[in-house]
């Protein structure tokens, strides 16, 4: 059998689950059409009109570095938004860069980090390359991070606990009260890193940010991003909220500064409250549409609080992925140990309709009982 260049490109991209551009290009090449990208938890409505205007105006300034004053203005705007002083804030090239910096700071020289599995792995993967000792704790029966088991996993060598709230890939969330009690019960010297990338989509009672713990002097770092509710994933900007000491340490560990477009677009987007509210309304509405359809199809799902839904396809995930790809839809990757479960990003309303139509088409027909 000979494989064409197209076959090779498609297969290798899928196998490696490589960078977004590669996977998209492979799907486009195999069909000639743009695929529906529902695999990276992006917000398809962004960037906001104000952020777009900021980027357009700045194109001639693409030859310039972002001024310190512009970065300071972004930090000040974030500080106002979060209700704390600028000394508690640092921006990064996506919150991913800041997660890596924290993984380096707390994981180096065999530092122990406790995290759930599955969860977002940017911090733990990076920390493992820097010699960290990682302790992974399974989710509970509701696919939530199991705080009792995570507390039990904390040892005298533990430097940090990573909590992703809402959790990627399951979408389940802990309440702020649960996290507050967890932080209060940790030994002194153990920091809790709370990744709130998807918090703006949460609707469950009691689920909310714990950034105020930082102001109260607790050993907590909170991460937020412009990639999700702000719809700026491609512009790369995120921020951390922490004590001034931790902010200084992270400052020494980051690799670079956000680019000029991200700095100005982020500030503009923070002020575009109508856009942010509209994104939340649309995405939460479409999320409910997906879970309603899943219930009607008798497919199980984890309680979603982000802009994605984790559900049981009822078949091995590689088979489901292939069936959806044949319909030009890219879905989330495998997350062990959930071999038949798939993470699907909430796209635009027409994208959600297309996904649900494809889902109904690929499921086996119900068996008649006659
Ligand atoms: C839980 C979580 N945290 C952080 C990130 C990183 O976001 P960014 O680096 O784009 O800010 C992601 C990206 O998908 C995520 O899912």
CATH architecture of the largest domain: 3-Layer(aba) Sandwich
Q: Which structural class fits the helix and strand makeup?
A: alpha/beta
Bound small molecules, which ones? Answer: pyridoxal-5'-phosphate
Number of structural domains: 2
- By DSSP (H or I, 4+ residues per run), the number of helices equals 14
Q: What is the average of the pLDDT values?
A: 92
**Strand elements, count:** 11
Briefly, what CATH class of the largest domain? Alpha Beta
Question: Overall 3D geometry?
Answer: globular
SSE order? HHEHHEHEHEHEHEHEEHHHEHEEH
Let me know the CATH homologous superfamily of the largest domain: Type I PLP-dependent aspartate aminotransferase-like (Major domain)
Q: Helix coverage percent of residues?
A: 40-55%
Terminal CA distance reads: 44 Å
Q: What's the layout of helices and strands?
A:
Layout lengths: L4 H12 L3 H12 L4 E2 L11 H10 L9 H15 L6 E4 L2 H13 L4 E6 L4 H8 L3 E6 L8 H7 L4 E7 L11 H9 L6 E5 L16 H4 L4 E6 L12 E4 L2 H10 L6 H11 L2 H24 L11 E5 L4 H9 L3 E2 L10 E5 L3 H14 L8
Parallel strand pairs: 1-10, 3-4, 3-5, 5-6, 6-7
Antiparallel strand pairs: 2-8, 7-8, 9-11
Helix pairs in contact: 1-2, 3-11, 4-11, 5-6
Bound molecules: pyridoxal-5'-phosphate (PLP).
Pyridoxal-5'-phosphate binds next to α5.
Written account of the structure:
The protein has 370 residues and is α/β, with parallel strands linked by helices. It folds into two domains: 10-39 and 274-362, Aspartate Aminotransferase, domain 1 (Alpha-Beta Complex); 49-271, Aspartate Aminotransferase, domain 2, CATH 3.40.640. It contains 14 helices and eleven strands. It has a seven-stranded mixed beta sheet, with helices on both faces. A two-stranded parallel ribbon has the order 1-10. α1 packs antiparallel against α2 and α4 packs parallel to α11. It is globular and about 60 Å long. 45% of the residues are buried. Pyridoxal-5'-phosphate is lined by residues 41, 94-96, 120, 164, 168, 195, 197, 225, 227, 233, 238. Residues 41, 94-96, 120, 164, 168, 195, 197, 225, 227, 233, 238 line the site of pyridoxal-5'-phosphate.
